[in-house]
Design brief:
The structure is a homodimer. By secondary structure, the first copy, chain A, is mainly alpha-helical. Chain A has 5 helices and 2 strands. Chain B binds a DNA duplex (30 and 30 nucleotides) through α2.
DNA sequence: CTCTGTATTAAAGTTTACTCAAAGTTTAGT
DNA sequence: ACTAAACTTTGAGTAAACTTTAATACAGAG
């Protein structure tokens, strides 16, 4: 079991954010010490790994919360969960292709301006 | 020369947003008709292309405005502009690598849950 | 002459994802 | 037992990038 600070350093999320995620239903059933302090399990950490993965690839927190909620309802929601993940995966692939095109454009610009810079510095 | 609506359909930005960008200094010196209507040139469209490219790859509008401002100051700012673009390019590449790792994780999850779904549907 | 589109400014509202403050409680170390 | 550090809660505040509203007025087409 890990304290909130340990989870902060493991995940890079702030304690504020961890509590916020819990309040928003992204992470549920985090156990507590006798005094009421949060105690995160390894399973919680795995969930956080998935949450960060989805969040950092652009899924809104609401949709992640929905996924978590479905997971809690057991196998009958497997189809919907697979659907959600597949949709997200497709969108991510499109976005990555878009990013690649933008990267190419930026690379072109960098090269263009670098050449222009060398030219300009000759004239000094 | 293009009207604001033509530029909307060409870029996918709203008229509000185009005026907003102008106010924020992202697009400057847009010319006007005798009646005061905006008339966008091909050069303006190219600028908008770059603006969207930078924006959609995560550059904050403020930084884009800074870049535009530098461009207006001429060749003496070439070095700084190249630096800005190169920095952005490096960040973008890192982000794309991160996305690839996340994509792999999601693909793994999709496969895992798909298998679980087939298993579950057998039991029905 | 009317209708639709566009113009202005300025301010308020929206959404997402946090982030902070206050005030009290629990834990760990000595 | 004492104390400092860590933790709790609730509710308010923040930032970015728009989006909307409002009030008023000019432009160009039919």
């Amino acid at each position: 079991m890990y304290s909130i600070q340990e989870v902060c350093s493991k995940t890079g999320l702030s304690a504020h954010t961890l509590r916020y995620y819990e309040k928003e239903g992204l992470l549920t059933n985090v156990s507590r010490s006798s005094g009421g302090f949060r105690q995160y399990s390894d399973e919680d950490l795995e969930w956080l790994g998935l949450i960060c993965c989805l969040k950092n690839t652009g899924m809104p927190l609401q949709e992640i919360a929905r996924f978590v909620q479905l997971a809690h309802q057991g196998n009958s929601t497997l189809r919907e969960r697979v659907g959600l993940l597949k949709d997200h995966r497709e969108k991510l692939i499109s976005r990555m292709e878009e990013m690649q095109r933008y990267l190419d454009k930026i690379t072109w610009k960098v090269d263009f301006f670098s050449a222009k810079l060398r030219e300009y510095e000759q004239t000094l």
